Amino acid sequence: MSFWEYLGNRHQQLLTDAYQHASVVFQCMVVATVIGVLIGVVTYRSGWGGNLATMATSTLLAIPSLAMIGLLIPAVGLGVPPTVIALTLYGLLPIVRNAIVGLRGVDPSLVDAAKGIGMSRVMRLVRVELPLAWPPVLTGIRVSTQMLMGIAAIAAYASGPGLGNEIFRGIASLGSKNALNHVLAGTLGIIVLALLFDAAYVLVGRLTIPRGIRA
């Protein structure tokens, strides 16, 4: 069976797997973004605090994904829970690091001006600092998403959702006539999703970042 025939016969299952893959990555990125930005907000004013946050999230990223999921299985079981926890933890580093860099890079004179017109600490953060730090934060989100697209494939090891099931199915049936088709379909599907997500982030950047800041 050719690859195109395989896609024709399996397109419904592949679309379901692709939807599940995109959904779990998107949801984990939302959670990782909220947590990562909060960590950045709490630690960016402190040199040691920022370094500690970056080091801690770097350490998490250094753990092999298969080992991370394997360690989570005894605690939370198979399926979605270990997938969501692992992906969220892996997505933190670029967001935390870029949030800290972005917030530290805000021009102090703008913050002082906002303070001078009576803005509270929270108002300055929400209306001045975070909007100006948004471009590097968005870059961190893009990097995290590309990483998680690939890492999410490993979730099939723990019966997780997504296109990784196609890849693992092909690996498990090496030597059969459709083994390569399984792996190719899963791999190409992940690449296409990664490109679509990145294009969406480019659009979000154009809509949310003022032209002067982009320049």
Describe this structure in words.
The protein has 215 residues and is mostly helical. It has helices spanning 3-43, 47-62, 65-76, 80-90, 92-104, 108-116, 121-151, 164-172, 179-208, 211-214. Helix 1 (3-43) packs antiparallel against helix 2 (47-62), helix 1 (3-43) runs antiparallel to helix 7 and helix 8 packs antiparallel against helix 9. The model has no long low-confidence stretch (mean pLDDT 90).
Supply the key terms:
single chain, about 220 residues, mainly alpha, 10 helices, about 80% helix, about 0% strand
Summarize the structure.
The protein has 215 residues and is mainly α.
**Overall residue-averaged pLDDT value:** 90
How much helix is in the residues? over 70%
Q: Please give the radius of gyration in angstroms.
A: 20 Å
Secondary-structure-derived class: mainly alpha
> Order of helices and strands, N to C?
HHHHHHHHHH
Unreliable segments of 5+ consecutive residues: none
Number of helices: 10
Shape: elongated
Distance between the termini: 51 Å
Amount of beta strand = under 5%
Q: How would you characterize the largest beta sheet?
A: none
Strand segment count: 0
Helices and strands in order:
Layout lengths: L2 H41 L3 H16 L2 H12 L3 H11 L1 H13 L3 H9 L4 H31 L12 H9 L6 H30 L2 H4 L1
